[in-house]
Amino acid sequence: MKSQLLLMKLGGSVITHKDKPLSPNFKVIKDLSHTLASIQMPLVLVHGGGSFGHYWSVKYKMHSKPDCYDLHGISIVHQSMIALNEIIVDSLIKEGTNPYAVTPSTFTNGLRPIISKIEELRTIAKGGILPITFGDVVHVSRQNYSILSGDSIMTILAKVLVPSKTIFTVNVDGLYKDMKNAEIIREIDNATYKSIEFSKILTDVTGGMRRKIKEAFKIASSGMDVLLVNGLKPERILNAIDGIDIDCTVIRGIKTRSR
């Protein structure tokens, strides 16, 4: 059963200038913070790394496969995500919300979820605090570390929390069916899921969007709707929560037969 809970990710391409290393988009962060402050339902927030964590993880050749990565790089990637998180938390506080930063290692064991700790995030959110976590580098085993992306965290949290609304904010209006004509796929459901050439679509989109879409489909396969909403237009977030029709892509919870 879905709980009255909003699970939202602030995309790295939304909250930072991805083409400029270590460059937060302060205006967008402020606008989003103002919008989030007006949301009445419990919220669990995730944010990406953008030009912070992503920049350093590329520089130190770190990815989602557990490995013995450069120890200095591990420290720098982690610290850069804490720095970006602090900027967002400070902005949310200034707008009157009650954010509470939570590192992914608090509710995961390596790449595996700790169910009780994730359930605790729901309790915290319902009590008026806004838990906010982020993509990070996490310890897996011995000297092995791994990047745990914000998109992957969305899937981990969604499968435990089963939110009533799941939103990925992106820097475009949604998933494009035709990039040349900017034709948006407004809705994907059981009837259209198999008919759309996702392999072609995934080839057309950027690496960041590709990962996001894959995680969105994982969440939808558990029966939950997922919305891809333009975070550069924060008013759309409120409209999406209220069920008002907007330019976005909705991936309907996909019902699959149990094997």
Molecular structure report:
With 259 residues, this protein is of the alpha/beta class. It contains 10 helices and 14 strands. Strands 3-6-2-1-9-13-14-12 form an 8-stranded mixed β-sheet, sandwiched between helices. The model has no long low-confidence stretch (mean pLDDT 90).
SS field, number of helical segments? 10
- What is the overall pLDDT average? 90
Contiguous runs where pLDDT drops below 50 for at least 5 residues? none
Helix-strand string: EHHEHHEEEHEEEHEEEEHHHEHE
List keywords for this structure.
259 residues, alpha/beta, 8-stranded mixed beta sheet, two-stranded antiparallel sheet, 14 strands, 39% helix
Topology:
Layout: E1 3-10, H1 12-15, H2 26-36, E2 43-47, H3 53-59, H4 71-94, E3 99-101, E4 108-109, E5 112-113, H5 115-126, E6 130-134, E7 136-141, E8 144-148, H6 150-161, E9 163-170, E10 176-178, E11 183-184, E12 187-188, H7 190-193, H8 198-204, H9 207-220, E13 226-230, H10 235-241, E14 249-251
Parallel strand pairs: 1-2, 1-9, 2-6, 3-6, 9-13, 12-14
Antiparallel strand pairs: 4-5, 7-8, 10-11, 13-14
Helix pairs in contact: 2-4, 3-4, 6-9
